[in-house]
Amino acid sequence: MAKVLFLPYEISAEIGKEETIIELAMRLGIHINASCGGIGACNKCKVIVESGEVLGEKIDEYYYKACSLVPKTDVVIRIPVESQVERSALLRRTRAKAFERKELLEINSPIKRLYLELSSPTIEDNTPDLERLLFALKGAGLANPDIPYALLKKLPYVLREGEFKITVSYFEDPFSQKVSLIDIESGKKEGNPIGVAMDLGTTTLQLELVDLITGETLAYTSDYNPQISYGEDVISRIEFARKKDGLKLLAERVKEKIAFLMEELVKDLEYELKDIKAFSIAGNTVMTHFFLELEPKFLREYPYVPVAKSYPVYRAGELSLPLREGVPVFLAPSVASYVGGDITAGVLASLMAKEEALTLFIDLGTNGEIVVGNKDFLMCAACSAGPAFEGGGIKCGMRATSGAIEAVNIDPITFEPMLITIGRKKPKGICGSGIISLLANLFRTGLIDKAGKFRRDLKHPRIREGEEGLEYILVFKEESATGHDIVFTENDIENLIRAKGAMFAGYQILLESVGLTLQDLERVFLAGTFGSFIDLEDAITIGLLPDLPRDKFYFLGNTSLQGAKKVLLYSEKRLELERIAQMMTHVELSNHPQYMDYYMAALFLPHTDETLFPSVKRSI
Amino acid sequence: MAKVLFLPYEISAEIGKEETIIELAMRLGIHINASCGGIGACNKCKVIVESGEVLGEKIDEYYYKACSLVPKTDVVIRIPVESQVERSALLRRTRAKAFERKELLEINSPIKRLYLELSSPTIEDNTPDLERLLFALKGAGLANPDIPYALLKKLPYVLREGEFKITVSYFEDPFSQKVSLIDIESGKKEGNPIGVAMDLGTTTLQLELVDLITGETLAYTSDYNPQISYGEDVISRIEFARKKDGLKLLAERVKEKIAFLMEELVKDLEYELKDIKAFSIAGNTVMTHFFLELEPKFLREYPYVPVAKSYPVYRAGELSLPLREGVPVFLAPSVASYVGGDITAGVLASLMAKEEALTLFIDLGTNGEIVVGNKDFLMCAACSAGPAFEGGGIKCGMRATSGAIEAVNIDPITFEPMLITIGRKKPKGICGSGIISLLANLFRTGLIDKAGKFRRDLKHPRIREGEEGLEYILVFKEESATGHDIVFTENDIENLIRAKGAMFAGYQILLESVGLTLQDLERVFLAGTFGSFIDLEDAITIGLLPDLPRDKFYFLGNTSLQGAKKVLLYSEKRLELERIAQMMTHVELSNHPQYMDYYMAALFLPHTDETLFPSVKRSI
């Protein structure tokens, strides 16, 4: 009998006679998407054969169909994220409405385009192609531009194809004023130049195709970061990168996905990949290191040193992206190992660094990054909140995909729950926003106490002793999509309280480091797509957010993507972004002498110090 | 019977039973080096199997031994230049003594090296690697350097290997003052930095390894340009480049050879390829186009437009050279399609553009390039002299390799010749310097008249009617290495007269274009290794060089290589070189209204107008 090891789950089993991989996976409870019932029609059950010999049908160079795959020897099968999760749910969620901050600024993209009619060479004037071009550029005010090698090579063809009429794309570095050519095309290009902005997230990639003249978003797409197959969080991916060619593989996989998504962005429009003239990326420090293939291990090793904070502008050709070689790739600068370009771009997009109002900027994710400040100062920190708010470390937690419970209400009398799932499907588990609601409801209804423990005196069919202590049964197995009870355990609650405690202690330390308190805050900005889905009251009830007047809170949406887009549209924004990164003082929370005290004090619902949560106190 | 096609000769034949490739080649009169008699010991009979299946022994990835090679199907066999010609002769010749012009200048290489001791990161100062480096560089006066992508990728390893002590190599662009990093190495590098200068010739590559501190040439090597296999002259190579992937192949082959020669340069010294920190190349416009993989066909097509005249500084990584990715590659600028970087570098090396003396600079080769001028002006032209002075188009002409007749004297009474061959071997043919001597002697002794025709009245065993008219038998077949008579025909003489006529008309047109005559010349500089071997009196006698006082002539040697080396050693020389290229006014001889008249007048020995050659007139 051949043995099958499933990655990334590390579950292995012997395959039965005449059993296919998808049947074995089903038997083991390993989810592989399949909408056609296993008849080989849907092509969704993609798996990668990492080692061993198989019989089966390939979908493309990388993937086999699990539904017809049979091992000939012991095999290792990797289930890619595309087969684990439904991308449609992701696309739905990330389009949520957000209060994007707008500026009254005229669009002034650093990417410019110029139409030139060069004179054709004659025997009297057989000036070489390059010098002919440089002369014309100089006439247009562009002296001594950088010429990518690939451009020089294609120059003679481009000039002659268009009878010496050309469209030149270029950008000017706002720091050095150096002009760099991006592309040269034959004839006069119609239509506006376009660029791509991307939020390079640990979990998801979100891309927008942007009109560089009107500022309009022409197309949007997103997908999971395929690096998930090699580790859900940044730490496990850094570990994976230590393997031979691991880093290279991580970089290649994400670039393949980016290429695929870019194709998707342009495909329904009258554009092609070669029309994209700039690429602006905002990602956290680790994702940016992976993307540039920079060694990430020192980020994790004491004293936690990134390879770089500000990234030089490299070209698409150097970075093996499927764009014109000369296309500049702008990467938002980081501040520290765990405060990255997604946060600097977020602060840029939020405009908080241009305004008087003292603002707390919160990006809730695996690492909750926070920034406090205004136009005069910016303090930032990463709170190691862990993945609890994304469903990680929670028994029945799951990502926010179809079938996830995203909202919960508990009747204060009957203690019966009301739930809403994504896509209105039979419930499979609970995602982040559902988890916060559930915790808040359990606390509000008194089912759990300040310490997060269930009332021991109450006999209720939904509260029972489970494997990990007491638990609340949110969905009985008869009603669940999994055939198992969906429960919420004291262990889960403890994880959540630790996570929210880390966040709250972070706010306090940051503020204290500049002699301020929560009461001084004039605004709280919630960034990230996740932020757009949580219930504000619930989040304050559990002490995840500070108890401030509700009109001080703003859901800004994906500020990382918004910031990346601003870099494409406003020449001066790259300067502003670098200035923001320079301004941001990073506080290493774990080194701060008071941090543990604040953290311990926050390990209650909503907090040990109830005066910090007056409205919660009143309502309970 | 399998058919064998030999390239580059395009001779094909059926191979006999049990016949090897070398035996077939011998039967067909195709030369393949072999010093061991075909026993498989010498490894000199290298051939490339371009198509077809064979049985045989490989020497390495590319080459088979011809002496054991048997075709299984029809095959195409390419005889590489290494097997056609003996490189040892080349190495001997190119070391000839030359009057290299020296300047009293302190060496000031644009390639600088800096030893830095960075502080090691601590938790209080975990500044990223790049920013730590940039800070230290700024402290040393180097602000905002360009960082090649490959350097950023290796930065974390290099820093930690040397405990944050590093040696940084960089260069400053003399035009923009922009500083660019070349390499970063762990610890303190001992020994001086080194660079490579190269003369990229149509026929030969000549390379020097240069100490960038002392200016000393540490090693020298040369070899044939392997592109010869695809065409002896630039025109046939441009034709070859039109084929699919032809241009790519030409670029690859020359880069492979360069890589091989660079290995050879460093191998006996305490250096490795990675120690080379700069590469300076001077080559003609076509060779430079091939090297950069720039489309060459427009150089040949009316109105003869190069892709570029001044070449941006690209990096070894971009150009796929086996050096550190960040190593800058300097290419000497061209003036026109047939006046290239070898000439601008030559003018640089000659110092003529810094001095008052009116100078005629002559580089005699396939295209005889000429420059007239001084510090105030420079006029240049390419004379289409053809390859006659290199033995091309001459019945028994050959390259200057072992067995070539390099010097000739004819007894004025007996008309018997005295000859000297390269390597003192049995004569195989006549090379350029021998051809000039022979022509001059035939003329001086009255065996030929002013028009280059043999005396019809003379009965002499060495003069006979051949296939192409009258001819002089220089070597009877009994004494020759080929088993055939070595002859010199009226046809050969006509070709030579046309070639020297083209040169002489070129001198006149160039001088006339600035209102000067030959008598105004204060100096004549003869450049090129070929120039170092010709007999001055003989060259004047045939009218190839102007009849001026002999002390006005200087043999400068390989000025192209000398110029390339100066760029490595003196920061300001790149500016000077670009200024020279700018200053040089190109005269298209074939367009000049008087050119044909001057040319026709020069089709005599030494010239129609004998007053131009007073000393020749006196001596005859």
UniProtKB/TrEMBL annotation, chains A, B:
Q: Which InterPro entries match?
A: 2Fe-2S_ferredoxin-like_sf (IPR036010), 2Fe-2S_ferredoxin-type (IPR001041), Beta-grasp_dom_sf (IPR012675), Corrinoid_activation_enz (IPR052911), Raco-like_middle (IPR041414), Raco-like_middle_sf (IPR042259), RACo_C (IPR027980), RACo_linker (IPR040506)
Task: Give all residue intervals belonging to the 2Fe-2S ferredoxin-type domain.
Answer: 2-83
Q: Which domain of life is it from?
A: Bacteria
GO molecular function terms listed in the Swiss-Prot or TrEMBL record: iron-sulfur cluster binding
Name of the protein: Ferredoxin
Organism lineage reads as: Bacteria, Pseudomonadati, Thermodesulfobacteriota, Thermodesulfobacteria, Thermodesulfobacteriales
